[in-house]
# Entry
Amino acid sequence: MAILDILVFPDPVLKQASETVTVFDDEFKQFIADLDETRLSAPGCVGIAAPQVGRFQRVALVDVSGNPKHKSNGYMVLVNPEIVEWEGYKKGREGCLSVPDYTGNVMRATSIVLEAQDVEGVTQRYECEGFEARAVQHEIDHLDGLLFLDRLVSRRNDLFERKVYKK
Amino acid sequence: MAKWFMLTLVGEDRPGIVAKLTHALFEAGCNLGEASMMRLGGNFTMMLMVGFDGKAKALNDVIAPVSESLNLHLHVDEINAALHTHLEPDVRISVYGADRTGIVSEVTGALAESGLHILDLESDVAGSTESPLYIMHIEGHAAEGIDSLRAALNLMQDRGIETSLEEIDTLLG
# Structure
């Protein structure tokens, strides 16, 4: 097990697209374990993508189960993930291990259906909502060379865009 | 190492203020930090962190020719400041109501007593001269939790002030 070095923007490699995973060998599984150990070493971090540690393969890990109020599929290893259905849009605040000391608002689909291979190469299907759906979209963006900075929307002037506070 | 100064500039709005000001600062070897600039009531306002290797008087002399030519009030303070010290807000509060005196005082007073640390506040008067509407957005840190803030806002409803509160659940990925 090892904690890997996180690449930080403006390192230009974070803007490059990653390659499809075709080999699911022991080295790959060891990498997945190291990648999750790296994620867990950052307090509150709910997702990480392989290119964030300089490995340009389409692999991301998401686990939002640390906060029980988030609907969750638990720990997901997402290899070659594809979002096949989207629904709804909502603004939410995001930060990133690769962009320290900054958070910003990003629009994301509120529910998604996703297909991805697991660590053994078997295709799985997940339904994700809310915070988990947001995390998955944030991580898949990394695989396409996109950061949340590429999707920022204004912090200002949105009146009652979310649920209205009950009287 | 350069010291941080806070520049405050206010004056009648016109195109090109930021470009001319920052050009003068760049030519003088200044480094810009965090800033807030906006048009308020037809005036352009700037609050700007400037790193400068010299005294306040010298910095003032750099800017004064430009600020005078643009008819801006200029104020320079040496400040104790640093970058990369952002505090993350965990709550966002929106307030609106028919404009009258006292809205900000009542709302922020109740919120302060309930543990709110305001990190960012912007407000506007919309509507018309005959029927002005006051709108305010606050982002802050709820030191005593969200529930105490909700209770404070509840009391505002009876005073004709509409409020909403949402938790900011920042995703780190």
About this structure: Residues 95 and 148 of chain B are 17 Å apart (CA to CA). Chain B has two domains: 3-79, 91-167. The first strand of chain B starts at residue 3 and ends at 12. Residues 56-69 of chain B form the longest helix (14 residues).
